[in-house]
Each structure stands twice: as C-alpha cells, then as structure tokens.
Specification:
homooctamer, alpha/beta, 5-stranded parallel β-sheet, 4-stranded mixed β-sheet, 9 helices, 38% helix, binds adenosine monophosphate, binds magnesium ion
C-alpha cells in the first residue's frame, strides 16, 4: 500500500503508465512492475540508476536497461503504431542522455521518431543544412544545455510546435541547467513550450499528446 | 532602419506578425504599424502601456486598445476561421489580464476560444464540474499565479496538450511568478509545456501552432 | 560539556527530548543517549546516517534504527496515549522517507497516526476517494515534493489545520525542494502552516502541539 | 462570470469568505461584495489599496477601511463568539501593518485576540516580562521582519502552537522578507508553522482553524 | 573633496575620463565637469537621468544630452581618429538604448563604429545576410536581452573577438537581464567576453582597448 | 503602546537610542521623539524619507534633517567626547549617502571621525597615497558598492579592525548590493567584519563598540 | 614559484601567517610549511582534509592535526601572551567544528579564549545564566547555523563588539548557511560584524585585531 | 553519427578544434580523437577526468594528460608561432588549475604565454612589483576565486584588454564562483571582459582571438 497505482490515468489521459524510479526502494519498484506487467503490457521505468537496475533485471528476464537514458523497459519496444513523426534534436553530444530518455519514451508510447544530434548554434550551418528533416516532423523536441539558444533558432525557422528541454550539462554559471531553462523561457520565437530541466520524459509526453491529437483527426 | 522587419517569418512559421511594444519608442511603433498595416492586414501590438497607446491611437482611427490585456489591434477582430477550440482557464480573477492577452492573440490568429475563469485548486469542485468544456478543446491553456498547482490537476484530467502560463500575481515568496513557474515545471502530470511568466502571447502562439497542425491534417 | 542539555524544555514546551544527530560526533551522541536514557525514558534521534547508527546500536541493545526515516529509538514505541488522530499524506511514493520521520516522531510523542500515501494531484480522484480518512483526523500533515500542489487541494477540502512539508524529492527546476516550498507558501487555501524542506520531525511536533492543546480541553 | 464564488467553502472548511483584492478591478470587487453582502453576512477584503478602497466605500455606507492593514470590512466587527485566545506578537513597530491584517482577520472570524508589540529579541527582557499573556493564549502568532529570530525564542518558551509570519520590513540583505522567512523555517524550536511573507491573513486563518478545532471538543 | 579625480588613469590605461553619474548629486556632477572641461577636452557622462541632465545643461551651453543613451557630452563628437571598425549589433529594437551608450562611448573614444540592429536569432536569415559588415570589423559588440543566444551565433560565425552585453530588456523569467547574462556566459562558441548587464560603456571600453592595441602595432 | 521603548539598552549595551524610522507612521515617530527628547538627550532617527521628515521638523524647532544620509537629529551634534579616531572610506562618490549615515551615527555616539572618499581600487594609487590617514585610525569603515574589492585591499594593508559596508549603488549584476556583499564576505584579507547592505548605522555602531572598548582600557 | 609568500603581511597587519590549504597540492603545502617553519615560528594550516593531513604529518614529527577543526599546527600551541579574553559561543553542538577553527586560530595568534557551547535561543535560559562569562570577554564570537538568531540576542545583551559566524549546518531551506548569514546581517541589535559562512578563521582574525588594538593602548 | 564535427569552424573562426569532454562517453571521445588526429594535427581535450583519461591514453601512445588542468593533448606542444605575449595571473595558489587550462589552451593555439601566480589583492605590493611583466603582454588574463577584486585592480593599472576568469575556489558565501563572477562584472575599471566560472579555455580563446587580430595587422 505504499503505491496507489493510477490505473485510470491511461483512460483519462490516453497515456501508458510510466514509473518514476528515483527515490523509490528496489522492492517497491519490483512489485509495481510485477503488478503492471501482469496485464501483458509493456512498462517503462525512468530515472533508474544502474545499481538498482541490476537488482531489478534479475527478476525480469525480458527487461532491458538503457544505461545512457537510465531507463528500463519490461519488454522490447514494438514498431511505431501512430503516424506522424517526432524529431528530437540536440545541441551537443553531451545532451544525448536526455535526448535518449525522450526517444525511449516516445517510442514506448508508439511514435515514430527521427533524431538530429550535435547541431548547436555555435556552428549554425550544421542546423540549416537539415531543413528537410525538420519539415517531415509534426513536432520538434530541442534538447540543449550550454546552448539553450538552439530552441529560439529552431522556433524561428519552423511552423511546427517546438518543445524545449533544458539540460543540466554545463558548468559554472550554468547552475545545473538554470541558464538553459531561463534562456528557453525568454526566447522571442513563438510556438515554444518548455519542460523541466533534463525532463526528456516530459517532452516526449507532450509531443505524444500533440501527435495523438493530430492523428485522431485523420 | 531601427527595425528589421521579418516579413518572411509569416511564411516560415505560418504566424501573423505581432509587435512587442515594451521598450520601443512611440514613433518607432507608429512607423512599424503604418508599414505593416499598409498591406491591409490586421496587426497586434502587445505589452503596450496606456500612455503610449493613447499617442498611437491618435494615428489609427480604427485601432482598439484593450486596457486589461495591454494590447492594441489595428482593426477589429474578425470571426474565427480555423476549426478546433482553444480553452483558456485561470485559477484566480487576478490572472485575467494574462488570460486576456492569450485570448486576444489566439483570436487574432484566427482561432475559436473558450474561457473558464476562477477555478483554482483551493476549491477543486469548481474545476471538476466543467469537464465538458475541457473535452471540447483541442488544447488547454492554464493561467495561474498563486495556484500554479492548477496546471498539474488539469494535466492529470485530460488527454489534450496543456500549456501552462505562470503569472506574476501573488506576493511575498511568490517572487514575481517564480513560485508558479517552478511549480508548473515540476508537475508529475505529463503532456504539459510551460511558457514564460505572464506570457499570454507565447501560450496562444504555441496553442495556435498545435491547432494549425491538427487542422492541416483534416 | 559540548552539549548543554535542555532538561527544562519538556516542562516548558511539553515536548519530549529529540536529538538532531546530523553533524554530531558518534561518541557525543552515545553519551547524550546514555545520559537521557538513564531516566528510563525513551529517546528519539533524527537525521542519523546508517554508518553512525551501526556504531551506536552496538551500545544500546534495545535500540531500533529505521533506515527509511534515518531515525533511532532507544526503546520500542509504546501504544498511543493521546486521543485525536493525526493523518499523514504523501503525494508520491518517493516522499515516504520524510513521511516516515513524521510518523515516528508523532508516535514517539504518544499520538495515534493514520497514513494515506501516493495521492498526488496528477490523479486527483485518488485523493477525493479518501474523504473519510481526512474527516477522522484532528490535524493533517501533507508531505510532497514534485507536487507541492497537494497542500492547496487538501487545504481547500477540509476544516482541520493542515501542516505542509515540502520534500527535496524531484530534479531540475525543483532546486532541492525550493519549488515545493514556494508552492506551499503561496497557496490560496487558508489554514495551512509550512515547515522546512524535509522536516518531518517539525511537522509532527507542530501537529503534536495542536493535538495536545485540543486534548487538554477535553 | 469573471469570479466563480466558492459558496461551499464555508461549509467545507468552516471559514467565512475573504476577498483577495490585489489585482482585481474595482467594479469586480464591488459586484462580489454586493453579491456576498446580500445574505446579510459581513465580508472582509484584504490587500486593498487606499485609492481603490475609496471607490468602493462610495457604494457601501457601512463599510470600514483600515489603512494600516489595507483591509475593508462591509460592516463593523461584532464581539468575539469563539472561546480561546489568539495572541499576536510583533518584533518591531514597523511590523504592525501585517499584525493588523492578522488581527482583523481573526476578529472577523469570531475570535478573541490579544496583542503584544515591539518585543524584538535585541531586547529579550521585553519578551520575558510578558509570560502571562503568552500563557493565556491557545495559539501565538509571531510577526517579524528584521528579527525573524523572535519566532525561535517564543517557540522555545511555550507549549502552544506558534504561527510565524515573516514580514518584508527590512532592507539590503533582507531581500523583501526572504531573510526572515528562511530564519523562521530553520529554527530549532519545534511546534512552529510558517506562512507566506506578509501573510497576516493566512496566519489568522490557521490560528482560527486550530482554535475552532479546540472549541469543537469543549 | 567628495571626488578624487583620477587624472592619471588616462595615462595609465590610455582611456579618456568618463563620469558615472548615477547616484551623484547634480552639483557634484557640475563641478566635476567644470574641472575636467577646463583642459579643453571633451567629457562623457553616463547613466544620467533626463531631470538631472536638464539642470546640468543649463551650465554648459555646448553640451548635448542623448535621451536614448541617457548620456551627456560636454562638446559635440569629433570625427573618428583611430583606424579599425567596431561593429555594434542588437537582437531587438528594444536593446537600442544600451547599444546607443556603447556607440557614444566608442565614438567619444575616437573610434569608427558600424551598426546592425534587430537581427535576433528568431529570424536567423537577417543575420546571415550581413556577413560583409561583420567581416569589416575588428571587434564586434553584441547587445541582446531576450535573445542572449545572438552572441553564440555570432561567435560561431566570425574570427574577431566578440563582446557580449546582456540587457535588462525582457520580462518574467528574464529577471532583469540575468537570463541573458547566464546565456552569454555559457555559450559554446569561443572568443567571447561578457560585460555587466546594460553596460554599453564597458563593452565600448573593452572594444577600444582591443582596437587601440591593434592600431599600436600598425 | 505601539512602541515598547528599550530604555535599558543604553545601560546594557552602552549605546544611545537610535530610531529606525522606515515603516513607522509619522505620529508614532513624533511621539517617540517627544518621549525620548524629554530627558534632554539628543536622539537620532535613521532611514527617514524627506516627506516624513518635513512633517516631523514642524514639531521640533532645533531638529536637523540630513537629506543625503536621510537622518534626523533632535539637536545639533556636540563635539566628540571619546578619544580614538574612526576613519570612513568610500570607493565611489555615489557611496556617499551610506558613508554619511555612518558619519552621523558615529559622531552622534560621541566619536571623532575622519573621512577619505572616492578611493576605488580601479585607481589604486589614490588609496596608497593616504597611508597616514589610515594609520591614525583605531577602526576603519570601508563603504563600497561597485568596488567591494576595496575592503580586501584595505584589509591587507592595515592592522586595525576593518568594517565593510556593501552599498546598493550599481546596476545589472550588482543585484542591489548583493555583488558587493558577497565580494566582501569572501575576501582573503583577515580582520574584516561585514554589516548589512547600506547599513551605515550598523557599521558605526560596531566601530563605536570597538573604540569604546579601547578607551575603557586607557 | 607557485606561491608568492607575503612575508611582509605580518609586519603590515600584525598577523601571523596562516595557510589556506583547500585546493592546494600536498607537496605545495609541504614546501610552504618547510619554508615558513624554518624561522622557528609556528604555522597554522586551515581547511585541510584528513587524507592530505596524513601525507603532511609524515614530514613534520611535531605537527598536530585537529580532525574537528580540520586544521594543522606545525608545533604545539604556546600559552596565551596577549591579555584580554575572547569568548566563543555556539548555538548547537553541530556548530562545534567551526568554533574549533576559531578557537585554534585565536590561540595560535596568542589569545586567551573562553568557550560556551550549545546555548541556542530555542532554550534562552541557557544563555541568560551565563552572563558572567560574557562580561569577562573583550570580544564575543557567536557561531550558529540553524539558529542565526543567537547573534541578535547576544548583541542586545552586551556592550562588547560581537562577531557573528554563520555555519552551513542545517538542511532544506538553510541553503548551506545562507539562511544563517542573512539572519545575522539583518539583526536589529547593533555592534555586530559578520564573516563568511563557516569562516572560524576570519572571526578569530577580526577578534584578534580588536583585542590587539585594545592591548596596544594598555 | 553522435557527433557532427564542425570542420569548417577552423576556417570560419580561425580556431583549432578543442573537444569538451565532460559528459561524453569514453568511446565517443576516442573516435572523435581518431578522426581529428588523422590529419596529423594536434588536438586538445578539456574537462576530462583522470579515470576517463586513462582509458583514452591507452589508445594514443603520444598523448599527454595534465592532471592539474584536467586536459589531454594528442601530441606534445610545439613552440609558440604567433608573436605577442599573453600574461596569465592568479590571485591564489588554489586558482592554479584554471590558470593551467588557460595556459595549455593558449599554448596549443600557438601563443607565447607568461605567468604570474599568487598576487592577490590582500597583499597588493606583490602585484605592484610586477609592472614589467604586465607591460610586456598584449592581453592579460586574470584568474581569481576568493579575490575577484584582482581583476579591477589590474584593469585600473594597464591599458591592455583584460580577460577575467572567476573560479569556483572558495567556500560559504562564495557559492561556487558566483561571488567572484559578480565582483568581476561590477568593476568600475574599464576594458575588462568576463568569461564563465572556471572557463580557462574560454579566456584563452578570447585572448587568442585578440592577439591574432593584432598579429594580422603587423
Ligand atoms: N522522468 C520523469 N520525470 C518526471 N515525471 C515522470 C518521469 N517518469 C515518470 N513520470 C511521471 O510520474 C508518474 C508516476 O509517478 P509515481 O507514481 O511516483 O511512479 C508517471 O505517470 C508520470 O506522469
Ligand atoms: N555606465 C558605466 N558603467 C560602469 N562604469 C562606468 C560607467 N560610466 C563610467 N564608468 C566608470 O566609472 C569611472 C568613474 O567613476 P566615478 O569616479 O564614480 O565617476 C570611469 O572612469 C569609468 O571607469
Ligand atoms: N538604519 C538602521 N539600520 C538598522 N538598524 C537600525 C537603524 N537605525 C536604528 N536601528 C536599530 O533599530 C533600533 C530601534 O528600532 P525601533 O524600536 O523599531 O525604533 C535601534 O535601537 C537600533 O538598534
Ligand atoms: N580558513 C580560511 N578562510 C579564509 N581565509 C583563510 C583561511 N585560512 C587562511 N586564510 C587566508 O588565506 C591567506 C593565505 O592564502 P594562501 O596564500 O592561498 O595560502 C592567509 O594569510 C589568510 O589571510
Ligand atoms: Mg558539438
Ligand atoms: Mg477565486
Ligand atoms: Mg504516484
Ligand atoms: Mg523596537
Ligand atoms: Mg525584432
Ligand atoms: Mg571615482
Ligand atoms: Mg542543543
Ligand atoms: Mg596566497
């Protein structure tokens, strides 16, 4: 009775259950996974450290742990089922971990995902040469730490909704992602929504809500 | 040559031109308005104080100034042309000014907008009784200052994308909207994107980008 | 002579002695415990890390260490002696550690405690279905990290005093509990008092002061 | 329809309606007051500036505006009806405005209130000489800006619940009340709950919830 | 004797005297100007409000006050005498005031200055079309408030030293220029130095030191 | 009974009474002044704005208001009575107001005060040329806003105790004196104590306590 | 040549050399100690972690490492040589480490030191019963983390200069000592100077400067 | 495809490629180094921890790892090729690590570098005695943590451009370099540009851009 599972949320919000593992005891996570996994559905666990992951994997032979994203899946990902592409971009290679959490979440939720990495604004031509990839997406997720600016530049180039994810990658006056967060919130380009620092999961959830809305009307 | 108008942005991003008036000289604003207004299109000016508005209204007989939203329109609003409702909710009556900026922007961009005011979480039944209005919207904008919590509650109830606008309404440890901003960024409910404090314009722009994307597929 | 025990505080404030162990040397803690334990009374130590706890347990065969709450008791808890229930609620399962510190403190002070875990506002129906439990309490303690909003929602539902405990559970723009703290301080619901981030002990002390006041008049 | 009055809150939470006037249009306030005042009940409006107050007083001949507290009452206060004293203390004379808001709110809610002003810790004997007044109260509200320390000192002297209200009175590194807020949250004395900076209303509401709870059992 | 003029600084640092007027009494400023002006040299006063400027202009018939820059010059500017262009860019029209302080300071120090306004990154093509102007400069000053990102983009395009000036133009989570400052300090593009928020004077001084160093070697 | 005058403080702490006027009602100040002035002693009021000062001066024909320091004295200053010089230094002319509050307070308390203004570290020779003045003082007060560095430099030059007063003079990343405060607290030079931002009164009080201590032993 | 020893500082400021070890390489520290120790004088090293201390002790047979204070002395302390007592007080037992750094520094500088521990304001009588100890001191150092309030209370009781040292002991909204720092800077009691968080060394240095000044006049 | 190398940047900005290693996977770094190293050019990697460095060194026999600077070079440094000296100064010996990163970067970019360590302002004569070294430099880099003041003092002494690097060395109210950063941004001395906290690399890059500009004109 430490966890009051919200089985109705899927019905209410149309979203599959995702477990936030940070701060939970290993045996709590295992019992939640067992409970949810019974219905033959896949389950995603986020913010899971490698040590705890190892303890958990011992109980679920089919489960997969992604070290970069620090995420666990009870079963392998299936093919995308929802039409409409989500594009995930990063400014630097050091933002990859957060991008990977977003990628896994979006794929887990049934979406088709494209990626475009290391296109920071300090070398703007790398971005401008990738117009086509942007045009093919329904929604664009921009993940950036030291170059929060990337979200503004993208927002000024495209008509699609843009979801900006500040990352904690940086140092000094970066203040664990605060600099990127503020930079993204203040952008002059419109059509941009921001999620919490390092919240790849949240960005993918919002992207999913948008794409599912589009699909529903097709 | 103080303003380098971005005439292509409408083409690139599909969004009508909106002038950010704060910090601009009155005559600059007038000359931009004249220039843009020539093409017989309507123009929206945001963050315009009443004193400057008065100076400007003297030059444009058909222009309208909305004191609550602190916005100016060169011509009256036309009827909505884009299908798909946007719902704007506020937690308190003191959040109305920001909601009104969002309303004007969305209507100016051609959208159909519903409103639901004063449904703060301290009286949660007021919100729960309005399920139908939420169900009819394609996107929901939640405007809240002292009760940033409203965004989480709404995000946990609906499947639509939710855009959260923290407002600077409050006092003490509210720190000009910082408390609401942080509260909205940290919510556990998924499918929520946050814009800058008091940025009704930005929320409507993002809502518009989402709704136009949906419409495009119809 | 490093510790000037305040033997009169129990008389003055009606509260049993509790040792704040963080930052104290193990042998200091042991000698304080010995001194206080002599009078055959139970003693509670809070914010005690597992390594130090082990050193201490070696000297006190009857002592119990609670890993989740990071608290030590010199002797087992006795049955509640003071009438009037305290209800402890948490928003997420990751807030359990702080709730447990509150639970132990309240029980140690002689109170009867109910619990209600994982009722975050992102799934508001989980909370609304627990009306009865709330009605039976004299005071309600709300423990929440990522969803500080829970305190407002509860505060708007009940007539009892509510004590809000922000927790440091979260990440990114959570800033080690600051987001939850600010959110709780700014709530529109009235009848809410806030204690320090992660201060389960303080919440239980305040709840105890209130309940003992009620009892005194019975 | 700008205000969704929460008529049930009185039933749910046992508290009389209080209007937060800051940020509301004068005519909105007038129409809310008219609506609520019809039922022959008194109404309290807080955070009302003198200019707006004047506009409002013109419509309500019996209303009273308290300049110090910046509060308005539709009708004069009646005699206290609920047994159990609330004591309001201030550290400096400059904290009087916030104390007065608390006083008015508590009296409006039917309580009997004692006051003790200018007993800052820089002259601790002024406080120690007032033991009796403290002993007679069921709850103590401590209002302090430059001397947030007062809350700790009082909390260590009494067994009653203490409600601490930081004020924005101060300068420099006071940061509009942040220094007092942090000081109060970190106190070692137990049995203290903190409300928002300058929130005299909130302190009185919590005191009222506690005293009504005590009364209910008598 | 309230001001200890640093006559040697010009010798030591090669820079003309500039008076920081904010917070100085009008008669103090007048007497400093008189003293410095005697040697037939021009003097620049920065951060001077219009009211004080008016009082001062009454004593100096040849002086000029620039309302936008809030600066005063004792005599008209002479033609540039030092070879090597400084380019001043702004992201938005609202950043003009700070750019103008930089322009005046650079011109006052004898430099040749080009300008390029309103080339924010939300419309990146406006910037890319101005390559030639950038190529002609020895140093580039980038002034930006809501789009601190501009400094990174420029820094990644050019080989010249770039001086970034964050401005306080913005709102909400802009925190009076903090967002732009942090964004500029965290940029990945190298070859960028940052000065204080709104410090157009400081940017021009640094540009001047660099250009004079280049000139010295010619 | 709004003010609980602390008549014993003079006895306890050896300090004359000083009234902190900010946030006090004019008539409160007048009645306190009347009360204290009766005993034929002089009284100092600090942080008094010019408007309120005018109201007060009408009641006290011998009182003097110092606009720069924003202080009021009930009677003219008498000659210094306590041996031992206090030296007050400022970094910029804009720090004069705070220095003046310190000067008045020190003189009011009976001390002999030297001053040395505008010796900021950006022109370090101005400071080094004033060695003699420093050598003659028992205590040195350093007042600085934009150049908090001055306190370190002085602290490294002298053997006397140094009292550092950060001022709110500055802009941008000065954050109302925070930059100067932090700079002063972090200095490597030893023998420096810091008081609140703009607290000229506090600096003089500490200087006075030190000098009286020295005198007492003579 | 990595360290430019300031041999003249002792002459200039009258203070013995103290090495700040944090961030220095072990061999650097060893060579500085060797160099300074040659002149047969004692040397104090502060902020030295136990691992590095062990490496260093191997080279200096007479050196002593104090684990609590994290300080090293090249030779044992000699008896106090300067008349005039310094009293060091702490609010909690957890503030002992910082107090110990102050104690060692003061003793190393030749002073006579009294101590009074664990007299936090939550139990004010513990403090009031120690009047005599306070009266015997020339200067009082108050070390406090969770109860920054202690400095105000002491400042209001005594006529001696008070030096306040905020400590980083605490949690949650304590923000590593910021709460205590702000609380101490804002106190209304006068005659208090504040040093950096955890800076026991700095407090002792200032106390020493004051006491030596007093002595010099005897 | 995780890294989109910006081969043109060298052409565009004239700067050699430098790899920011923090947050990158070891094998990513190895493959980037292999790719860049093929062209027989040297490569610099910054912010590389010792553990990862060891893994990498195993693949590159000629590579060198500098533990102090936490930097790796693929091949030994060659002799300086660009005329014009860069002087790197530090305030304390604990700022050496950051100075070393700047030194390595400048040398790697082909510059001639002088150094001057441990000349903090608390002993200002150490600095004043080194005038000649300053005079010989084209640009001066000032690295300082606890004594951010050093940048102002140097800026007021020389005519060369000064680049200030705040370091995270310090404690308490230093806030990981924030105090030094703010101090440097607020200096009154002109001709100073600031880079991110601990960003030795960025300082050297800017110095290089300036020196190459000077050289180009020779
Ligand atoms: N990485 C994440 N960041 C933020 N929220 C998350 C994350 N992963 C899951 N969640 C949310 O947390 C909810 C579950 O929280 P819990 O009940 O504590 O397991 C999920 O339904 C999501 O809404
Ligand atoms: N707008 C400005 N911002 C920062 N520093 C300035 C500004 N204007 C002038 N200064 C500096 O302040 C010095 C003069 O300060 P003061 O002696 O107070 O007039 C000048 O020599 C400049 O170095
Ligand atoms: N400018 C000032 N800043 C801080 N404290 C002050 C100031 N002026 C007076 N005080 C203190 O405030 C006390 C009086 O406070 P009050 O009782 O509110 O008038 C005096 O005894 C001083 O200790
Ligand atoms: N714990 C400490 N905190 C702050 N400053 C210190 C400390 N210990 C020594 N110092 C100062 O640092 C100087 C030595 O710095 P350094 O040259 O880096 O060894 C000493 O002379 C003291 O002024
Ligand atoms: Mg890259
Ligand atoms: Mg309402
Ligand atoms: Mg949950
Ligand atoms: Mg008082
Ligand atoms: Mg523009
Ligand atoms: Mg000056
Ligand atoms: Mg204790
Ligand atoms: Mg040194």
């Amino acid at each position: 009775d430490f966890a009051r599972l919200d089985h109705h949320r899927a019905l209410r919000t149309g979203q599959a259950e995702v477990i936030f593992c940070q701060g939970k005891q290993p045996d709590h996570i295992i019992s939640i996974l067992k409970h949810l996994g019974e219905k033959d559905q896949n389950v995603l666990g986020t913010r899971l450290d490698p040590q705890t992951a190892e303890l958990i994997l011992a109980h679920f032979p089919d489960a997969i742990y992604d070290r970069l994203a620090r995420c666990l899946l009870l079963r392998p990902l299936s093919e995308p089922t929802i039409p409409g592409k989500i594009l995930i971009m990063t400014a630097g290679t050091a933002d990859l971990a957060v991008a990977q959490e977003a990628w896994l979440t979006a794929r887990y939720m049934g979406h088709d995902v494209d990626t475009l990495f290391d296109v920071g604004v300090a070398g703007i031509h790398r971005l401008l040469g990738q117009r086509e990839l942007m045009d093919q997406a329904e929604v664009i997720i921009v993940v950036a730490g030291m170059e929060g600016a990337l979200a503004s530049v993208v927002g000024g180039l495209v008509e699609q909704p843009v979801i900006a994810v500040p990352t904690s990658v940086g140092y000094g006056a970066h203040f664990q992602g605060l600099a990127a967060l503020l930079s993204m919130l203040n952008t002059c380009a419109s059509g941009i929504g921001v999620v919490n620092i390092d919240n790849g999961f949240g960005a993918a959830s919002l992207a999913s809500a948008i794409v599912r809305r589009i699909t529903r009307h097709q």
